[in-house]
Amino acid sequence: MHAGDVSIGTGSFVVMAGPCAVETEHQVLETAEAVAAAGARVLRGGAYKPRSSPYSFQGLGVDGLRILRKAREQTGLAIVTEAMNEQDVEIVAEYADIIQIGARSMENYSLLETVGRCGRPVLLKRGLTARLEELMRSAQVIAEAGNPDIILCERGIRTFETATRNTLDITAVPVLKAVSHLPVIVDPSHAAGIRSLVPVLARVAAVAGADGLLVEVHPNPEKALSDGMQSLTFDEFEEMMHDLQRYVSMPPVLEDSRRPLLVVGGNC
Ligand code: PEP
Ligand code: MN
């Protein structure tokens, strides 16, 4: 599928990177230049933020979308950003190349139907406690509404483990690729919750056959308004991208798991 001039799920490993939230124009433009120079093809950044607390930064809204547009003009990066509710889909679709549906919205069926009609590719994140079968069902809602351009995103699930923010279910990659033709990407940032673990999870994602990554990067993570703990600095991002080169060029390891008999639902 195509988002802007980026082709996703067609063999090349596509990295989407940028801050958790759009905070200022300077922050976003600086990050866009840095991630583009390191090889990212898509800029991420939330203008509308789903937060666990009503007292946390909620995002800049339309002003944030304008900043993202400016970053696209300056760098040529495609833009992925979240729409949190039906009313925002139209405006987000006007500014974004890919519309993100956050983990907390995976079961918001009216939102899914709305993005199914929006004419933009959709990045669908797995819910915190969603089975792969349920993720696929949400993808079907979008597809049924008329939009076949869906990217599935494994971003870690909630388990009894508390050492990391979530537990990366790397098995999701080969399973989803076996049961669907959709591109599958991994978000190591929300899975880990800790900056130092992001590069190794990214590497594992590449080896498992993911079509790309969604990674949080911030010019000054200590000062980030959201998710600073899991955001990479520019240098760390560049190093990670360099490290990934030899893993993305490895022959695919998926052939054995691509068996038609693997049924999500039956096995999950
Ligand atoms: C995000 O991408 O910043 C985000 C809020 O992710 P998730 O919906 O996976 O928690
Ligand atoms: Mn985030």
Distance between the termini: 28 Å
Alpha plus pi helix count? 9
Largest sheet: 8 strands, parallel, barrel
Strand order of the largest sheet: 3-4-5-6-7-8-9-10
- By DSSP, the count of extended strands is 10
What gross morphology would you assign? globular
From the alpha carbons, calculate the radius of gyration and give it in angstroms.
17 Å
What proportion strand?
A: 5-15%
User: Unreliable stretches, pLDDT < 50, 5 or more residues?
Assistant: none
Structural class: alpha/beta
Cofactors, ions and other ligands in the entry: phosphoenolpyruvate, manganese (II) ion
User: Whole-number average pLDDT?
Assistant: 94
Helix % is 25-40%
Q: What is the ordering of alpha helices and beta strands?
A: EEEHEHEHEHEHEHEHHEH
In short:
With 268 residues, the chain is an alpha/beta fold.
Report on this model:
With 268 residues, this protein is α/β, with parallel strands linked by helices. The protein is 36% helix and 14% strand. It contains nine helices and ten strands. The strands form two sheets. It has an eight-stranded parallel beta barrel with strand order 3-4-5-6-7-8-9-10, surrounded by seven helices. It has a two-stranded antiparallel ribbon with strand order 1-2. Helix 4 (109-116) packs across helix 5 and helix 8 packs parallel to helix 9. The radius of gyration is 17 Å and the shape is globular. The chain starts with a strand and ends in a 20-residue tail after the last helix. The model has no long low-confidence stretch (mean pLDDT 94). The protein binds phosphoenolpyruvate and manganese (II) ion. Residues 20, 46, 50, 102-104, 125, 155, 190 line the site of phosphoenolpyruvate. Manganese (II) ion (MN) is lined by residues 20, 190, 216, 226-227.
